[in-house]
Write a structure and sequence with these properties.
- This protein is mainly α.
- The protein has two domains: about 5-130, no CATH class; about 170-270, no CATH class.
- Helix content is about 60%, strand content about 5%.
- It contains 13 helices and two strands, in the order αααααααααααβαβα.
- A two-stranded antiparallel sheet has the order 1-2.
- α6 runs parallel beside α8 and α10 (about 170-195) packs antiparallel against α11 (about 205-215).
């Protein structure tokens, strides 16, 4: 063993670790049926938990999770199949259990196979957020006040706005004009850049990156997501259109970028 290189040692660790994870998933998937038949008793074990620990080296917590999931997925056989056949880890499946229905089980089964665990968590949060009725924003609007929410103005800017307000200038109208002008400038700049956005390189030009940042800031473009944007996503596939039209670009966090590509993979599979 001392003679192998660091890279070869690391390759073996990764390979064996992946194999161990795969077989542990399959072992856990069999436990509901082992428990139902009470095979642990037949072979002299005190409980299914003792059996699972001594034979497979898995904890009681893992066993309880799998048994509970198998029961919860009785009405969603596609998800249950992924669990008992060990195709997907219980760590992923437990995250979709709260939103699983007969109607969405096929979609969830696709997502848990395509996405990483962190992306699955983000996907579930998105689904839950969409199911919450929108708040009535009008209840927060007060007459003659700035609806700034959690925004904190710099003292100098607040003072300048107060001076204008004391002069009888409508601050709401002023800010609306400024925001409308900003949006118009962004639209015009994107229109100009779209005309010269064709490229043989996958690298997005600096000018286009700059306008995307000006429009969206540094956060993910998904409305309820506050994570930093790590990737610029082509909503129209680059491999198909071969350009970086800023009208079809959006900055996404790592998890939402993964979700977007998972949707793209499913769409292409459906088309084929």
């Amino acid at each position: 063993m001392e003679d192998i290189s660091d890279s070869e040692l690391w390759s073996r660790i990764v390979m064996f670790g992946e194999a161990a994870r795969k077989w542990r998933q399959r072992f856990l998937g069999l436990l509901p049926e082992v428990n139902r038949r009470e095979l642990w008793r037949v072979h002299g074990f005190e409980s299914v938990f003792v059996f699972a620990f001594k034979v497979g080296g898995v904890s009681e917590k893992q066993v309880r999770r799998v048994l509970n999931l198998e029961e919860r997925f009785r009405e969603t056989p596609q998800l249950r199949s992924l669990l008992v056949e060990g195709q997907v880890s219980s760590n992923k499946l437990v995250r979709v259990a709260s939103i699983a229905t007969v109607e969405n089980q096929e979609m969830l089964a696709d997502q848990v196979q395509l996405l990483s665990q962190s992306a699955v968590e983000t996907f579930v949060r998105d689904v839950k957020a969409k199911s919450v009725p929108p708040r009535d924003a009008s209840a927060d609007v007060r007459t003659h006040t700035l609806p700034l929410g959690n925004i904190e103005l710099a003292p100098e800017l607040a003072e300048r706005l107060n001076i204008l307000k004391e002069k009888g200038i409508d601050i709401d109208e002023l800010l609306t004009e400024l925001l409308d002008r900003r949006e118009e400038e962004i639209v015009q700049t994107k229109t100009d850049l779209a005309e010269v956005s064709g490229s043989l390189s996958r690298y997005i030009p600096v000018g286009i990156r700059r306008i995307i940042k000006k429009e969206y800031g540094t956060k993910c473009a998904i409305s309820h997501c506050s994570k930093p944007s790590n990737e610029i996503h082509h909503t129209a596939r680059y491999s198909m259109i071969r350009n970086h039209n800023p009208n079809f670009l959006a900055p996404l966090c790592r998890q939402h970028h993964e979700i977007a590509h998972a949707v793209d993979v499913k769409t292409q599979k459906f088309k084929r």
